[in-house]
């Protein structure tokens, strides 16, 4: 999937275009960029801002929009009215979701939106927003209101579909976001981290953009963004002589699984093997004990036509059933740490056997009543009943009343699983 980031260049890579490139790339998106201004900045101050020419901005946008499929757009720093008018003219008829992050003043105190451009910003940028994510200061500048609810309502009247006022403090250890949807309003609170940082607003809006690109709801996207920003602030780094820079530390296991998921999506006709319950893909820590030791997708891999969408984020505990299967196999065969579930198909079973895969199965119709009644017990019972001396490549069952038939493919790593899935592709 592809995301276009429109914003300023940040020499510190703490925010702006450089930060977006890191975030989108790390999470499996291809980032396109359009630069509105070049800033010279570090962790202590911004020393210069040089806006691009109108012609340069026009050509950048035309280059991207005329050639590539765009799944979502993030608009950050625009700086002046000239840029605002150009962006509006190019995007006013767009069909893809747009997230607007109002960049008005830097953490170090430098104005990043000219005062004489505020009126144009309200008239031309805010109406483009499917989601807008101002903090308390930015919402006050845009509306004149300090109250989050009043500010959000006024911004919505200006044309933004969904408004999120971020980062208002309720106590010393609690910070909240106020969300106003067209027909709903609510608050999401989280733990406050006492760190002055550069880049948290950019991280939040980038996470929202990723979620909208995937087709997730506003409510789900907000919760993901809240968690994303918390981790980026928690992992912030003191790399210069001034304030910290937010940082998303992507563990090696997560990178391996993200890469494998991307490889999976490229396999021809892979959408045909996504089951009704959808697919999860997991990667466990060494010696996993619970599902919290297993990295999975919080919302699963979902079929959308012929496309596979990652509906959620990677998280430990993000899978129950597939994670439980890995844990059970790992008890007998510690080298097995990864697994994916796919749709039951007799041709796939036959192909696996011809390829020399170790294929095992269990009968869910023979489950004891006690097992059927206990949540998540079926997979544990089934896997335990078949593990003897051979480590399986593939395990299947034919389902039961109200229970979908399923195939599980195991491997030492996500890449190992992908290789096995690829070998079976002719059976799709």
Structural class of the helices, strands and pairings? alpha/beta
Which sheet architecture does the biggest sheet show? 9 strands, mixed
CATH topology of the largest domain: UDP-N-acetylmuramoyl-L-alanine:D-glutamate ligase
The parts where pLDDT drops under 50 for at least 5 residues are: none
Q: How many distinct domains?
A: 2
Gross morphology:
elongated
Q: Report Rg.
A: 24 Å
* Mean of residue pLDDT values: 87
In CATH terms, what is the architecture of the largest domain?
3-Layer(aba) Sandwich
Number of extended strands: 20
The strand line-up of the biggest sheet is: 3-2-1-4-5-6-7-8-9
* CATH top level class name of the largest domain: Alpha Beta
Beta-strand residue fraction: 15-25%
What's the number of helices?
Answer: 14
Specify the helix fraction band.
25-40%
Q: What is the terminal-to-terminal distance?
A: 24 Å
What is the CATH superfamily label of the largest domain?
Ribokinase
Record the SSE blueprint.
Layout lengths: L1 E9 L5 H11 L3 E12 L4 E6 L2 H12 L6 E4 L5 H11 L6 E3 L17 H8 L5 E2 L3 H8 L4 H10 L4 E10 L2 E8 L2 E8 L5 E2 L1 H14 L4 H17 L9 E2 L6 H15 L14 E4 L9 E4 L3 E4 L2 E4 L3 E3 L4 H12 L5 E6 L2 H9 L4 E3 L7 H5 L3 H10 L7 E4 L8 E6 L2 H10 L5
Parallel strand pairs: 1-2, 1-4, 4-5, 5-6, 6-7, 10-11, 18-19
Antiparallel strand pairs: 2-3, 7-8, 8-9, 12-13, 12-17, 13-16, 14-15, 17-20, 19-20
Helix pairs in contact: 1-7, 2-3, 3-4, 5-6, 7-8, 9-14, 10-13
